[in-house]
Amino acid sequence: MSILVTGAAGFVGTNLIRKLLSEGEIVIGVDNFCRGSKNNLIEFLENPNFIFHEIDISDFSKYQKMILKAQSKFPIVEIWHLAANSDIPAGIEDSSIDLRDTFMTTLNTLTLMKEFNVPSIFFASSSAIYGDLGDTPLSENIGPTLPISNYGAMKLASEAAISAASESYLKRACIFRFPNVIGIPATHGVMLDFIKKLIATPLVLNVLGDGTQKKGYLHVDELIDAMLFIKNASKEKVSLFNIGCGDQGITVQDIAEETVRQLSPQANILYGAGNKGWVGDVPRFIYSIEKLKKLGWSPTLNSAQAVKKAISEIIDQEKA
Amino acid sequence: MSILVTGAAGFVGTNLIRKLLSEGEIVIGVDNFCRGSKNNLIEFLENPNFIFHEIDISDFSKYQKMILKAQSKFPIVEIWHLAANSDIPAGIEDSSIDLRDTFMTTLNTLTLMKEFNVPSIFFASSSAIYGDLGDTPLSENIGPTLPISNYGAMKLASEAAISAASESYLKRACIFRFPNVIGIPATHGVMLDFIKKLIATPLVLNVLGDGTQKKGYLHVDELIDAMLFIKNASKEKVSLFNIGCGDQGITVQDIAEETVRQLSPQANILYGAGNKGWVGDVPRFIYSIEKLKKLGWSPTLNSAQAVKKAISEIIDQEKA
What's the CA angle centered on B38, arms B35 and B40, to 5 degrees? Predict the structure, then answer.
């Protein structure tokens, strides 16, 4: 028996695989290294329980051949579908990116799960599916979900396709609506951006926007813990949960100040105008995790603590 | 200035075009006659304000050429995107049908609206996006939307893509979540099915399921009226509305009895088992139109009246 992880070389994939291997699972990883990095997999390569395939799963026939081969040795019982475009602005400029890397990878995964009788999918969705609902707390039972980026749109489209497949041939689906997740290996995001800037120019930190954007942040260790908790605790056929920090979050200014404090205390922070960093960014949202709390899971770190920990880890990563 | 209607030869398309032409609009129709019928367009073909193109808009380059040509003569200011797969069971069997005919036609439409600066889209979504929520009244502000068919999934995916495009380049979008719409030209649905069966075997009517499925029905004349009302009355950039009859609906048994009464009073009605006709069918739902009522629109016919009218029209259609 094996577990397939798509997007294996990405930020969440790497952390999930470490956890699954530590529990003795056989893990088949797949990645096209379009955004994921080969370096992220080095720690697993000598583990006999880890099998890696470098393919682009938006290419159906390559994906099909890979699964056929993998199945013959270790039947796949779960797919953790994490592969996706993670560059939101790029996807707004060119909608074909999210279509191919986020949605078609989901549809191909579902088609192959039908073909090869793989019963369970675990999907990395996103708070971005909610769009910009202002001060309305984002809980799973509100609507309409009107995403403002193709990233969010193709995550919502993927949820919808998984839901339809669950009615017809899947045994089980977990849909996790991720918050802003932080930690290492960091590939994008405001913390990595600030740290790179400060390493390049230690005396000044230019911040996009006025710094008042407020968001909640969850450390990736807690995200992995929450997903596995939901997998074990939820009895719904389609288990759809927001995963988040449960607090109102911290501002970009807080993050800038913490980064400067840890990395370059003498730097001046210069702010821009407006509270939207880029088209498709949701400037402020209140992310409800009441459903997950009722199931029995709560994070151990608040946003400020998660940010502090992640900044420290990313600084080490960037200086390594 | 012109209005482009995709799915021009379909059930709703035909009725919409009749209305738009009656108001003096120049209408460009497009259809691939995959499900729409050439016969449906006969009444418009001598109208100088109607221009028709037979192409498959899931083929991007053909669609692009068509718009380029059409734009040069009459700049397109609105697209009414009605083209979609309408055969829900077929789409459950083969997910590529809804992907191509429902979702890719939407994505191609959006990409071309960006390229040619077409400001406004009017989109035929569906109550199917809600999935099976049991007794929860389906209003626009509930979630999660977990469709149980690829039809519903690709309609929801289309909504999501339109929403993202509205944030970035569209001036305006109206998303209409259609109920069960009835009238002529009928191409599918329970009434047409019953009428065809009764014409073939006038003494017996076999009903799929136990006849207890209860749904609301709206006559297509009212649907067109509601869409144009929303277009004029709603000020939201993304105007998303359920359109429906506003009542609790009538049962399949009521429809069977009315059809028999009008067409073949001597027929015996034989029922099957269960209250789901087919995978992907939502057996019963309460469809809220409170948002639309607040905007100022209500239907004039209830479900029973709409069904009676439609059965009479479909009988005439099938006997012609």
Answer: 90
